[in-house]
Amino acid sequence: MKRAININVNGTDYTHEVEPRLLLVHYLRDLLGLTGTHVGCETSLCGACTIMLDGQAVKACTMFAVQADGARVTTIEGLARGGDLHPVQQGFWECHGLQCGYCTPGMIIAAAQLLERNPKPTHEEIRHGLEGNLCRCTGYQHIVEAVAYAAQKR
Question: How far is Cα of residue 74 from the mean position of the Cα atoms in its chain?
């Protein structure tokens, strides 16, 4: 039996009838076409599906869309404002914080929350803040430098 949900995603209100078992990551990708949120492990280990839910970084593969009813969601597509990249997005660009790009949206969302909580993190604090997000391509140094760059630009 489907259930009606209302979710604000990247500043736009959406109402859909969904199956209660539909994961939030699939709602975003399949119903809304926001494919920047990636499906990696589907067990919450990799962090590729990280989004902001009411200002908190969460893994969209671990919750159902019905659990987000009434919430405000920000995906990687919603971080840029008026054509200007978010400072973390700019940092990833300037500091080569990505290789294949698969983990990048989740890393950027997690880093954005980290900088909201701690505007001037040390490199160690950045590494700790990104622990729930895995990159299989890099040694993380460029990612850490990208977040540090963003902290300086904010």
Answer: 7
Cα–Cα distance between 140 and 47 in angstroms, integer?
Answer: 14
Spatial strand order in the sheet of 3-9: 12-18, 3-9, 72-74, 50-53, 56-59
Which pLDDT value is given to residue 41? 84
Distance CA 127, CA 142 (A): 11
What angle in degrees, to the nearest 10, is found between the helix axes of 87-94 and 104-117?
Answer: 130
The one-letter code for the residue type at 57 is A
State residue 113's pLDDT score.
Answer: 96
The DSSP secondary structure of 29-43, one letter per residue, reads: IIIS--TTS----SS
Q: Comparing C-alpha atoms, which of 105, 101, 95, 22 is closest to residue 63?
A: 22
What are the φ and ψ backbone dihedral angles of 86, each rounded to 5 degrees?
Answer: -65, 150
Q: Which segments in the chain show pLDDT lower than 50?
A: none
State which amino acid sits at residue 19. Answer: E
Distance separating alpha carbons of residues 72 and 12, to the nearest angstrom? 9
What letter would DSSP give residue 84? B
